[in-house]
Design a protein that fits this description.
By secondary structure, this protein is of the alpha+beta class. Helix content is 27%, strand content 27%. The two termini are 27 Å apart. It binds flavin-adenine dinucleotide.
């Protein structure tokens, strides 16, 4: 039996297992090679137990949300990739505090809250990730961010112990947290608790529709992972990329959008290598011409 088969056997009790699943099918960029072992976990317990089983088998683990903020290498990801579909949601008696499993769609949850008159998340209706990914990046838009409503998060450590951690202890900043800074390496977000306030559903849906319209106008079509770089304090990233002459630049079937230069787009069958080349080119030119180091929002993952 190969190591990959052994790993597949170790996790098969926790969901559907596929070998060599192409990750291009599971990322918004539509690029990325195979996962050695790809497990679809449909509840929080399976998610947590699969992580422990893979660690016991000495295999690396990658938790995949909606794949909306990652660039997966053409060579794929070694070890176990867990497709997180844990989506249970419970409300407190007063209906204002929600406990949501980390595989829940953040946008769908936010839209539902608007519909039922719970205020605090209208800004999030267009963010295409899971709650887990939203915690990792402190997802935000239009002046709001998850930290505004997040109370606490249940996190499993490397040894499989799960504990609630209060939001202020997660170091949430603009598109970052203890996770993005490598301080919580190997830990898994299982659930998040958010506190909302009563609102008027008609007004909240109108507010959400306004955000939808703004996205439709500003953001390009084509497969992408949202903003590629964080905005440096000096200037928005798109302006810097535009100023170094990269608006509309292409490499293979990847491009820097001519509509919004901080969006890098796969307009066909781009390879991760092509997208990465454009990202490096933008970093290099902005550094050289402006002395500004662009910080990536999109994470490179897998075997580069
Ligand atoms: C069109 C478009 C528009 C976007 N607009 C915005 C925006 O306005 N604001 C914004 O903030 N972002 C935006 N994004 C980026 C993205 O949607 C967010 O960063 C989102 O929160 C990522 O969630 P995800 O589930 O897709 O994470 P993934 O991309 O699947 O994973 C990202 C990282 O988080 C880790 N991770 C995911 N789940 C867990 C978990 N349960 N436990 C531990 N680690 C985990 C992964 O291992 C990986 O390292 C946009 C993306 C797109 C494609």
């Amino acid at each position: 039996m190969t190591d990959i088969e052994r790993l597949a056997q170790a996790v098969e009790a926790f969901g559907d297992v596929r070998l060599g699943e192409r990750l291009a099918r599971h990322t918004t960029f539509g690029v990325g090679g195979p996962a050695d072992v790809f497990l679809t976990a449909r509840d929080g317990e399976s998610l947590g137990r699969a992580v422990v089983a893979a660690r016991d088998a000495d295999a690396p683990v990658f938790i995949l949300g909606s794949g909306s903020n990652i660039l997966v290498a053409d060579a794929g990801i070694r070890g176990l990739v867990i497709d997180n579909r844990a989506r249970r949601e419970t409300a407190s008696e007063d209906g204002l505090t929600y406990r949501i499993e980390s595989g829940t769609s953040f946008a769908a949850f936010a839209r539902k809250m608007c519909r039922i008159g719970k205020a605090g998340l209208a800004w999030a209706v267009g963010i295409p990730g899971t709650l887990g990914g939203a915690v990792v990046y402190n997802a935000g838009a239009y002046g709001g961010c998850l930290a505004d409503v997040l109370q606490r998060v249940r996190i499993q450590d490397e040894d499989g112990r799960a504990d609630w951690i209060d939001a202020p202890d997660l170091g949430l900043v603009y598109r970052g947290s203890v996770f993005t800074r490598g301080q919580f390496e190997g830990r898994t977000v299982l659930e998040a608790e958010v506190a909302l306030i009563p609102g008027d559903s008609v007004a909240l849906l109108a507010e959400a529709a306004g955000y939808d319209a703004r996205r439709l106008t500003a953001q390009p079509r084509g497969r992408n992972a949202g903003s590629t770089f964080k905005n440096p304090p000096e200037h928005p990233a798109w302006k810097l990329i535009d100023a170094v002459g990269l608006r509309g630049a292409t490499r293979g079937e990847a491009a820097i959008s001519d509509r919004h230069c901080n969006f890098f787009v796969n307009y066909g069958n781009a390879r991760a290598e092509d997208v990465a080349w454009l990202i490096h080119e933008a970093e290099h030119r902005v550094q050289e011409q402006f002395g500004i180091t662009l910080q990536r929002e999109v994470a490179f993952v897998g075997e580069w």
